Structures are given as C-alpha cells and as structure tokens.
Amino acid sequence: MSFVGDGDLGLSSSATVSVAEPGDYFALLKPRVMSLVIFTALAGLLIAPGHTHPVVAIAALVAIGVGAGASGALNMWYDADIDALMTRTRTRPVPGGRVTAGEALAFGLILSGLSVMTLGLVANWLAASLLAFTIAFYVLIYTMWLKRLTPQNIVIGGAAGALPPVVAYAAATGTVGIESLVLFAIIFVWTPPHFWALALVKCGEYERAGVPMMPNVKGAARTRLEILLYSLLLAPVGATPWIMGFASNVYGAVSIVGGLAMIVCALQVYRTRVGDAANKTAMRMFGISILYLFSLFAVLVVENTLAIFLAGSN
C-alpha cells in the first residue's frame, strides 16, 4: 500500500501543511547516495577516451547527481509508509511530517526533467536517455514494484545504482564502451553483499514494514551464503579493469587486496551466526564493502586525473 493512499498521489486537500526548511529538501535528495553516484560517474567520465571540455564534464556530473537526487526524492515519496515503520528511515522528511507527499513528488519530478534535459543539451541525447532510464528504473521498477515483491529486489534494482558510470561515459563519448560496462558490473555485483550485510542486522525492521528482504524471506543462513557467493564473484570482477589493461598495477593491487578482504569478511559473516557477534560481523562487512568500492573508484579517479594532467603539461 502506498503512503499516498487511494491513488491521489499525496495531493489531497487534507494533506498537512508543509513546514519544510531547505535542509529537508536537501535530505530528500539522499545526499550520501547522490555523492556516491557523482563519484562513480566521475570515474566513468575519466576513463572515457578523448578529451571532454571541463564545462561539459562538470555540467554532466551535476546533471547525473541531480538525477540521482530526484530518484531519491521520488523514492521517499512512494516509500513514506514503510519508512515510517523503520528506525533508520522514520525521521526522513515525508514520514517525519516536514515535507508533504505532494511536495516530494513534485520536487522529484521537476528535478528529473531538469536533469535529463540538461544532460541532453550540454552533452548528448544518448546520455540523457540513459539517465532517464536510470531514474525510471529506480522509481518504477525497483521502488514501486520489486522492493515490495521479491527478495531479489536489491539484485535487480541494483542495476539503477550501477548505471551512473555508463551515463557519464556516454556523456563524454556519445557511446557505451566496454570500460563503462565493466564499472557497471563491479557496482552491480557489489550491491547484494553490501546491502544484505545491513539487512541481516535490520531484518526485523524490514519484516515489520512488509519489505521482503532476503533474510526475512529466505532466512539468515541463505543470506549469509548469498553474501559469500557474491563476494567470491566480486573479487575477480573488481580486478577486471586491471586485467583488461585500462587500470594500473596500483589498481590491480588494491582490487586484489580489497577482494580478499571482502571474501574474508564474508566468510566471517557466514560462520558467525549467533547474537551480538553475528551483528558485529555483518556491520563490519557493511563497512568494509563501502571502503572496498570507494578504494577501487578512488584509484581510477586519481590515476586518470593524473594522466590527463600530465598529458596537458606536455
């Protein structure tokens, strides 16, 4: 059941009056997620061949970031009913009563349109189309359908979070290159072990909210096995940029060490199944997974930025 109820999209005359401040609208954008999107998109932009004008590059990153924020606002609009039931989300602007559902919906739709049009005008319409698809997939396929339907929600829905490097690469080149698809694959395979580690700790809240996450549908044991299997797959996928030759030996070393760290954490999660120790290992896995993805993309960003700088100085 949607928060807005009765198909009125949250715009009924009985809706509460907004008491929102600018910070509440900023919170609707899910700034932490938005910053990660911009960061991974930057990597996709930098690995693209050729030269992208700095103004175009910055405008493209802003448009991609705003598109991600728009997706977050629309997600908060639709999911306000279940957000209100979960400790980590109940203070968000809509369930917290600071932003009305209608305002969140309008805010998200306006930003979606602006971000897509901006990217099309400053870069190209392939990139704009990919951004529009990303927003639509996250909102319509993941948020409105998969999230409340299947424990595979985060697997399939993870495609939306993995697309920003592809969008940025397309903005720079007008094409979808194999390099950007490799970055897509890394994020796509990384998402399940990352999110399911948190879901193991928060499974009671997901169950209370009626969200069919893997731990409360298939059980904790199956979830731990899935985390381990995805981590085993992630290690070689994460090293692919180095294997294919578009990342340095430094990246190769970081990806190998990081991949092994993910596997070790996953094994600890798999073996530790009782009490506070199980929650601690799951949260450690969650934290290490963030560090792992950040490290991979940070190396790509730094080494490609240095390559551009050195090429420009010659």
Please explain how this structure is put together.
- The chain is mostly helical.
- It has 2 domains: 22-176, UbiA prenyltransferase (Tetracycline Repressor, domain 2), CATH 1.10.357.140; 177-314, Four Helix Bundle (Hemerythrin (Met), subunit A) (Up-down Bundle).
- The protein is built from 14 helices and no strands.
- Helix 11 runs antiparallel to helix 13.
- The radius of gyration is 20 Å and the shape is globular.
- The chain starts with 21 loop residues before the first helix and ends with a helix.
- Mean pLDDT is 92; it is low at 1-15.
Brief description of this entry?
The protein is built from 14 helices and no strands.
CATH homology group of the largest domain: UbiA prenyltransferase
Say how many strands there are: 0
Structural class: mainly alpha
* CATH fold naming of the largest domain: Tetracycline Repressor, domain 2
User: What is the number of helical segments per DSSP (H or I, 4+ residues)?
Assistant: 14
Q: Round the Cα radius of gyration to an integer and report it.
A: 20 Å
Mean pLDDT: 92
Described by strand count, sense and barrel closure, the largest sheet is: none
Which stretches are poorly predicted, pLDDT < 50 over at least 5 residues? 1-15
Task: Sum up the overall morphology in one term.
Answer: globular
Succession of helices and strands = HHHHHHHHHHHHHH
At CATH level 2, the architecture of the largest domain is Orthogonal Bundle
**CATH class of the largest domain, please?**
Mainly Alpha
N/C terminus separation: 61 Å
Helix content: over 70%
Strand content: under 5%
Multimerization status? single chain
Tally of individual domains: 2
